[in-house]
Structure formats: C-alpha cells, structure tokens
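Re: beginner question about structure tokens

> Can someone show what the tokenized structure looks like for a real chain? I only ever see the sequence side.

Sure, here's an example I had lying around. Input first:
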Amino acid sequence: MTHSGALPAWAALLTAFLVLLGAGLTLLGAIGTLRFGSFFERVHAPTLGTSWGTGAIVLASIVCFSVLGSRPVANELLIGVFITVTTPVTLMLLARAALYRDRAEGKPGVPDRSVLRPPRGRDQGENGGDQ
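And the corresponding structure tokens:
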C-alpha cells in the first residue's frame, strides 16, 4: 500500500534527486574505501560518504512525508544527527587505535608524537618549565 500517487510532481522530483544524490555520495565513499591503499587514507572516504549521503536521504524523506502528511515531519532529523555525530567520532577512534598500534610496532613513517605537543624537556626545560 503506497501513497506515492498523491505526491505532487515537484515533490517527487525533489525526493528522487535527493535520494539519488545521497546514494551517489554513499557510493563514492564506498569506492574511496576500496581505492585508497593504507588504513589512514581509507578512514576519510566513508566518513564523508555516510554523513553527506545520509543527510541527502534524510532530506528526501522529510520532503516526501511532509508533503504527503500535509504537515512538517522532522522525526528523520534524529537519524541524521545520530549518523552525523557517531560516524566521524567512531572513525577517529579507529584511526587513533591504528596509530597507537603502528607506533607500538615501530612501523616506519609513523610520527612519534603530535607536532602540536613537543616532547617535554625540549622547550620547557628539563624540570617542566620551572626555572
């Protein structure tokens, strides 16, 4: 049982465009995951694909069901907020864990520390800055 026949043409076109845009962005994220070589390169693509792709699909759902229901429907915003907040945080934690693992294994090309936090003793003196 579908009510898609009651959807005006402008809303159907906008919904279709947003769904295709969201699916395309998610597909680009998946292709980026396969194409990039190292783990650290692969972390970026799915984050953007899921965040922006989910955003476009959520907007399509809001447009479709708001027009069909003759009232604003914003329940889908919770889904969008949840995906937008959790995906980057999860992938950032995975990247930190992989960086810790690579440092512990002594892999070449992995920085020892953040360049924003120089090692103690270099610019603060040997006693932690108390001079």
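Each token stands for a local structural state, so reading them left to right follows the chain. The chain has a mean pLDDT of 80.
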